[in-house]
UniProtKB/TrEMBL annotation:
This is Adenine deaminase. It comes from Sphingomonas glacialis. Keywords: Hydrolase, Metal-binding, Nucleotide metabolism, Zinc. The lineage of its organism: Bacteria, Pseudomonadati, Pseudomonadota, Alphaproteobacteria, Sphingomonadales. Its EC number is 3.5.4.2. It comes from the Bacteria. Residues 11-325 form the Adenosine deaminase domain. Binds 1 zinc ion per subunit. NCBIfam families: aden_deam (TIGR01430), PRK09358.1-6 (NF006850). It holds the Pfam family A_deaminase. It catalyses: adenine + H2O + H(+) = hypoxanthine + NH4(+). Substrate binds at D278. Zn(2+) binds at H16, H18, H196, D277. The active site is at E199 (proton donor).
Length: 326
């Protein structure tokens, strides 16, 4: 049995976190009040009771609705500041966080409002917690290529404060190939590339993320395990998988935590990491994810240390900083 303090005390990087998915119901209510917005819930308990999902889309519908309370730069600041405080308590010393600009620009909130709010919280987290943070601008894959290109164009003035682009939202029916050109543009800007693939989508989507997008890291990747040749390729190339156990359970990617493949991934030579995805919706932050997987799969300290080391190896930190964290 691993003690909880060991997990929280393990320095780690969080590589798969949607900042909009860290919106706790309490903050949702506070921002709704501050911005004079009506929300379709009577209480915080009501909100939490609605968080029952049987697939990714059930979650996404409620997640996009929740984001409507975010209107002003200070809202994005408060959202991110709350996450950094929580993550620091869990031993996160480096975070690479995704944000979904299109969720906000589609509602008339300017890209500038979103990013200036997030950047102010990032600067504070560095000063307050000594945490390093990179931003990952994530495109919504249910929208079209032109919308993604317009979003990348809107980001150009801040490109030196963005580390990577990503691809998220409804996976099935929206293969990576749809975004090959915008990813090529992002690469030309010097950005790293990540994409959700193999969460609900088939191994074919993972191949596309590798071959057509040229990703530097794979978000989720669970369904890669269905294809032994793909597993070999991922292992040999040292591709990092950002695995999210509590998310996998809540979105029914696994039926039960005791059936989670995290240790199988490690045994097969995959560089798996543990992350929280949308912690306010899935019942826990990063240390909760480590605890859940350790308890359900009987992981020992050595496996947990490997997972934490993998998080630095798979990060976009410069080599010297990675080495300093190992
Ligand atoms: N957006 C936020 N969380 C997501 C997930 N787990 N998969 C796809 N898109 C998301
Ligand atoms: Zn995700």
């Amino acid at each position: 049995m691993i003690d909880s303090d060991f997990i929280a005390g393990l320095p780690k990087a969080e590589l798969h976190l949607h900042i909009e998915g860290s919106l706790e119901p309490e903050l949702m209510f506070a921002l709704a009040k501050r911005n004079g917005i009506a929300i379709p819930f009577a209480s915080v308990e009501d909100v939490r009771a609605a968080y029952n999902f049987s697939r990714l889309q059930d979650f996404l519908d409620i997640y996009y609705a929740g984001a409507d309370v975010l209107r002003e730069a200070r809202d994005f600041h408060d959202l991110a500041a709350a996450y950094f405080d929580r993550a620091a308590a869990d031993g996160v010393v480096h975070a690479e966080i995704m944000f979904d600009p299109q969720t906000h620009t589609a509602r008339g909130v300017a890209f500038e409002t979103v990013i200036t709010g997030l950047l102010s919280a990032i600067d504070e987290a560095k000063a307050k917690h000594g945490m390093s943070v990179q931003l990952i601008l994530s495109f919504l894959r249910h929208l079209d290529e032109a919308d993604a290109i317009a979003t990348l164009d809107a980001a150009r003035p801040w490109v030196d404060r963005i580390g990577a682009v990503g691809l998220d939202s409804s996976e099935l029916g929206h293969p990576p190939e749809k975004f090959a050109r915008v990813f090529a543009q992002a690469r030309a800007l010097g950005l790293k590339l990540v994409a959700h693939a193999g969460e609900e989508g088939p191994p074919e989507y993972v191949y596309q993320a590798l071959d057509l997008l040229g990703v530097d890291r794979l978000d989720h990747g669970n369904r890669s395990l269905e294809d032994p040749l793909l597993v070999t390729r991922l292992a040999r190339s040292g591709m990092t998988l950002t695995v999210c156990p509590l998310s996998n359970l809540k979105l029914c990617v696994v039926d039960d935590m005791t059936a989670h493949p995290i240790d199988r991934m490690l045994r097969e030579g995959l560089r798996a990491t543990v992350n929280s995805d949308d912690p306010a919706y899935f019942g826990g932050y990063i240390a909760d994810n480590y605890r859940a997987i350790a308890a359900a799969r009987g992981l020992g300290r050595d496996d947990l240390v490997t997972l934490a080391r993998n998080s630095f190896l798979g990060s976009f930190l410069p080599d010297a900083a990675v080495t300093a964290h190992l």
